[in-house]
From TrEMBL:
Residues 194-268 form the HTH crp-type domain. This is Transcriptional regulator, Crp/Fnr family. The lineage of its organism: Bacteria, Pseudomonadati, Pseudomonadota, Alphaproteobacteria, Hyphomicrobiales. CDD domains: CAP_ED. InterPro entries: cNMP-bd_dom, cNMP-bd_dom_sf, Env_Response_Regulators, HTH_CRP, RmlC-like_jellyroll, WH-like_DNA-bd_sf, WH_DNA-bd_sf. SUPFAM superfamilies: cAMP-binding domain-like, Winged helix' DNA-binding domain. Residues 33-54 are annotated as: Disordered. GO terms for molecular function: DNA binding; DNA-binding transcription factor activity.
Length: 298
């Protein structure tokens, strides 16, 4: 669980420039917690070695040119490692960098004045924390790592230049934003209208499909670097309630937690419990208009 932030200086590592990651953050000891190493948390499924997760994800939205892929490979090569439980951006900061998750898991979250936390989104490999290019508005949430992460940090001028020169990448990011908005609507429905078992079942189905997109899930199983405290702060339940729901899903033969991996034993049963419809994760079909700068790469 991320520590409560009381010092803006310690919470704003990536507001204006890459900085040394905070040291000494302790991992929350939890029966579901993974090692904080990102290799286990983001191990590739067979057949998905090679291309970075960001390229894989964008390629599901649009047909990228060879030049686009080279740009993304160069960006991925700049990744730097950050420890687990590191606050990166504070609520009300005005960020000056886009942040790409290459390995590990990060999250957006909000703190109440009483110290309670609500996780509002997970960033898995291939996800991008984008910049507000038009208004430079203060953030309405914070950003931090859950596991050790490898992040690529793209300063505002470079980010703007990339979108200007590579319209297909810009269009793919637009489609990703639509999917992120759809995920948020599903999460609101989860919190407001689903029971505890239904909430967790829906979340586990969603994570399976999101990780499968970038080759991080196969055979209905994936690494699960999420503690019971994280799940509680995501699904609006107590840790005790989360534990009971996990035990129920196990007893019903729907899931198995073995070491550091989650296996969905009965995918159809879990989908039925959650009334899961994966269509919200499919990017909308947005026609790509011809653009002068969208020239095929040599």
């Amino acid at each position: 669980m991320l520590p409560k932030i009381t010092d803006r200086r310690s919470a704003s590592l990536l507001v204006s420039a890459p900085a040394q990651a905070l040291a000494g953050a302790s991992a929350d000891l939890d029966p579901l917690a993974l090692s904080t190493g990102s290799d286990e948390a983001t191990r590739r499924a067979p057949g998905h070695e090679g291309r970075d997760p960001f390229s894989r994800k964008l390629s599901t939205c649009v047909d990228l040119t060879a030049g686009d892929l080279r740009e993304l490979e160069r960006l991925a090569a700049t990744g730097r490692r950050f420890p687990a439980q590191t606050p990166l951006l504070h609520q009300s900061d005005v960020p000056e960098n886009a942040i790409l998750v290459l390995d590990g898991f990060a999250c957006r979250y909000k703190y109440l004045t009483n110290g309670r936390r609500q996780i509002t989104a997970y960033l898995v490999p291939g996800d991008l924390f984008e910049l507000d290019l038009d208004y430079r508005l203060p953030l309405d949430c914070a950003l931090g790592t859950l596991t050790a992460c490898r992040l690529a940090v793209l300063p505002r001028p470079d980010y703007e230049d990339l979108l200007r020169r590579r319209p297909r990448i810009a269009r793919a990011l637009q489609m990703m934003r639509l999917t992120e908005a759809a995920i948020l609507r599903e999460w609101i429905t989860n919190l407001g209208s689903r029971s505890g078992p239904e909430r967790l079942a829906h979340f586990l189905c969603e994570m399976l499909l999101r990780l499968r997109t970038t080759g991080l899930a196969s055979d209905n199983q994936y690494s699960f670097p999420i503690t019971q405290a994280d799940l509680a702060d995501t699904l609006g339940m107590s840790c005790v309630h989360i534990n009971r729901v996990l035990q129920k899903l196990r007893r019903d033969g729907l899931i198995e937690l073995s070491g550091r991996r989650l296996t969905i034993l009965k995918p159809e049963g879990l989908k039925t419990l959650a009334e899961y419809d994966a269509s919200y994760l499919e990017p909308a079909a947005i026609p790509l208009r011809p653009c002068v700068s969208d020239r095929p790469a040599a």
